[in-house]
Write the C-alpha cells for this entry.
Amino acid sequence: MGPLHELLDQSSLFLQQLVNGITLGGVYALIAVGYTMVYGVIQLINFAHGEIYMLGAFLAYTMVTVLHLPFFVAFILTILLCSCFGILLDFIAYRPLRQAPRLAALITAIGMSIFLQNLALMIWGSQIKSFPRELLPAVFSRPALVLGEITVSWLQIFILTITVLFMAILHFIIHRTQVGTAMRAISHDKVTSALMGIGVNRVISFTFAVGSAMGGMAGILVGLYYNAIFPTMGYIAGIKAFAAAVLGGIGNVPGAMLGGGVLGIAEVLGAGYISSEYRDGISYAVMIAVILFKPSGLIGKPTGDKV
Amino acid sequence: MLRLEGVHAYYGRIHALKGVSLEVREGHICCLIGANGAGKSTTLMTISGITPIASGTVTYQGQPIHRVSPEEIVRRGIVQVPEGRRIFPNLTVQENLMLGAYLQRDKAEKLSALERSFSMFPILRERRRQPGGTLSGGEQQMLAIARALMGTPRLLLLDEPSLGLAPLIVERIMGIIRQIRDERGATILLVEQNAQAALDLSDYGYVIETGEVVQEDSARRLLEDPRVREAYLG
C-alpha cells in the first residue's frame, strides 16, 4: 500500500469517527439540556434525569415489543410519558424541598435515581434488551450515504435531525414564548417573578416536562443506536451528559448543546485513536479539566441567562 | 380597600411584624415610613403573599387574602414594585415589561399596555431592545414602575422607589406616582425611608418602628408632628 493510500485511509477513518462522534454528541446534548434547564431554574442537579432517559428507552421498547405499537407511535407516546414522569418527579421529590437547603434536594435526587434504577430492575430485569430489528422501520438499518469508506446510516441521520429539530424548538420556546421568558426570569429571581403573577411552580413543572421529554427521547435514540437497553444505562449516560452540561457552563442551554457535541466527538475520537478502554474516562477527564481550569464552562458566565 | 389587622410575620427567625394594623383607602396615596429594618418591606411582602403571616388578617375589598397565592393576588389587582427595583438584568426592557402583563392573556391588550408604558416613559421605548441591566438607576426605577403598571393594578405597592436616586430623579419619580393615582385611578401604598418626599406626596401616613405601627395620621399632620420631625425629617 502506497503512502497516499494510507493517508486516504487515515482521513476516511477520521471522518467516519467524526460522523459517529457528532451523532453521539447530539444525544449527549439532548440529555444535557435537561440537566442544565433544571439547574437554571431551581439550581438543582437532577441526578434522576439519567433515569428518565433510561425509562424512555424501556418504555419505547415495551410499547414496540409487548404492545406491538408502530415505532413512531411508541416514540411519541414515550416522549409524552417521560414529560409526565418529569413533572411527577419534581412534584413528589423536589417541590416539598423547595425551601430546604440545596443539599437536601441533591441527596433526594440521588435517592430518586437509585429508586428508579431498582424499579426498572424489578420490572424489566437485568438482562440487556434490544429493539428487534424486524419491528423497527426497515430504513433504519440501511446506509443513507456511502462516500468511499464513510457510511452514514439512516439512523444516524434520524438522530441528528431529531436533535437539531428539538434544539431549535427549545431555543424558540426559551426566547420567543411567554413561558420561556418566565423561565429566564425565574432563573434570575424567583420572588420578583412571583410578584409579576408568574406561577413559579407551574413554570418549573414545565421545565421538567421539556427536559424530561428530551431526555426520554435521547434514551430511545441511544437504545436504537447501541442496541442495548438496561436499568443502569442512565447512570453513565447521565454522568456524561452532566459533564457535557458542565463543559458548556451549567445553566446555559447553548452551552449544553456545545458541550454535548464536543464531548461526543472527543469520546469517539479518543476511543478510536487512544483506546476504547478509555471511552468513559475521557468524559470524566474533560469534566475534571473544566472544573479545574474554567469552572464557568466554555460559554457560561457567572451572571446571565441560566436557562 | 386594603386592611391589615394584627399581622404577625417572621423574616427567617426574626419576629419582623408584631401586630401591624393599617388601612389603605381607595384613591389615596398612603405611606409607611420608618427606619431600615422596621418591617416596611416585610409588610409589603405579606400583602403580596410572598411572606406568610403567622397570625392576623389581610383583607382586600372585603375578602381575606392572606392565604391566597402571590399569583392570585396579582390577578386581583395588587401589584408590587419591589425594593431595589429587581428588574431582570438579562432580559430586554421590552421582555421585562411583557412579564408585567404575564396574566393578561389577550395579546392586543398586552400590546396596548406596552404602548401606554412607552408613551408614559419614552426613554423605555428607545431602550426597548437593551438588556434591563444596562439602564441607569433612574431608568431602572421607571422600568420597574412601568412593568408593574403593565398588570393594570388597582392597588400599587411601592417599596423605596427613591432608594439610591439623585434628588432630581426622586422628584420625578414622586411626580410619576401622583400621576398614576390621578390618571390611572390606582390606589397607592408607598414605603419610604425618605419620609419628607413620601409625606409630601401622601394623603395619609403610618410610622413603623421595630415591627409595630407607632403613629398614624394625615400626612400633613405627620409632617408637623414634633416626634416625626425629629426622628425622620431631621
Remarks:
- The CA atoms of residues 17 and 151 of chain A lie 10 Å apart.
- Residues 34-232 of chain A form one domain.
- Chain A has a mean pLDDT of 90.
